[in-house]
């Protein structure tokens, strides 16, 4: 059986979640691999959520938020834009391919962009293969 | 009434936890008066065989310090668990793996290679042979413990009732726990963290905090910090925001950044992730190139953010 990546998507309520919704109602086809978790803001995505997702079996994690300047809470996504690259540095040191974590800006009107990001990432993770953690005893 | 029985043990640790107990100063006499100390390798001459001969659950409380990194540590963890009613992970190493736990960033093979062959201070004899668990000598066979591939916290090996964090736990806090136990009050629920606060180190820190807008990080030798201002405000990576209170901000008060020895604050699963979150909030930049430059100044993020907590963190060890 071919490998189907499990990807967790943290989508902010105000832009990206609506963007995903739009992709749905517009019947844009996208890979079914991203399990969406709605958060109020991309700034609400504690790096712990991301690490925990990997521990619980995610092969990839994508965080989506409003474009810079559009965050419903003004500054939330500015926190995100600093946290993700720093977290990537940690992941790299942990020996986890940093392509497994993405940050993307998707507005409420960008249903097509949502689908594109999802498809691209699913393909990329498919190439990289499953994440097998040595969480052994 | 017979005195309650107390045992203290050290596994993979530096001995600092033992010193912290001795730092109770004259109160150590009260401890000796109140308890029957039945096992304490660092201070008293008891053998493992003495402990094996005891009845199960006959020790009332065992303070166990040190991580589990070899077969002897593991064996004693099981032994002390079996013999003790209450097993306490004492200090950062037993609680979270501690500094020995940073070995989880490498492998046993790499460590042996460095220590027994490659390090500049090693004089290679016998073709650089590694320690063997069994060696035949004219007098008979010698056995030493087997070093493991990964370092674990005590609770990853046996069930633990309580945790007392700190590298080492502060004597004042140790005493408060002992006093509590001696008072005869009902013990807190299993799994509790004792001898520590439920806020962050910053909360106890008297240094003046301003709005943080950081564009540069410095290593301690690179600047002379103002002793009255928050160290993080001055660009020194201080783990205060990601660390449990309890030490009364001992290090920041001495102009040294908090290194995180009291472990993650309540409701935080991962100290490193918490620190990433905290730093994300205080850096004043958002262009990728500028961020890259700023992050480059944080040398060894994993070793800095998980100095004491790597084995107990979500990912526990280097994966590849
Ligand atoms: S010096 Fe450290 S512990 Fe004190 S307030 Fe600043 S960050 Fe927190
Ligand atoms: S509300 Fe969308 S990123 Fe903050």
What would a concise description of this structure say?
With 137 residues, chain A is an alpha/beta fold.
Descriptive account of the structure:
The complex is a heterodimer of chains A (137) and B (320). With 137 residues, chain A is of the alpha/beta class. Helix content of chain A is 40%, strand content 17%. Chain A has a single domain, classed as Rossmann fold. Chain A has helices spanning 16-25, 47-55, 76-93, 111-128, and strands spanning 7-12, 34-39, 60-65, 101-105. Chain A is globular and about 40 Å long. Chain B is an alpha/beta fold and 320 residues long. In chain B, the strands form three sheets. A five-stranded parallel β-sheet of chain B has the order 2-1-3-5-9, sandwiched between helices. Chain B has a two-stranded antiparallel ribbon with strand order 4-8. Classes of the chains: A alpha/beta (137), B alpha/beta (320). The A-B interface holds A 46-48, 50-52, 54-55, 68, 78-83, 85-87, 89-90, 93-96, 133-135, 137 and B 105, 156, 268-270, 272-274, 276-277, 279-281, 283, 285-286, 288, 291-292, 295, 298, 301-302, 305, 314-320.
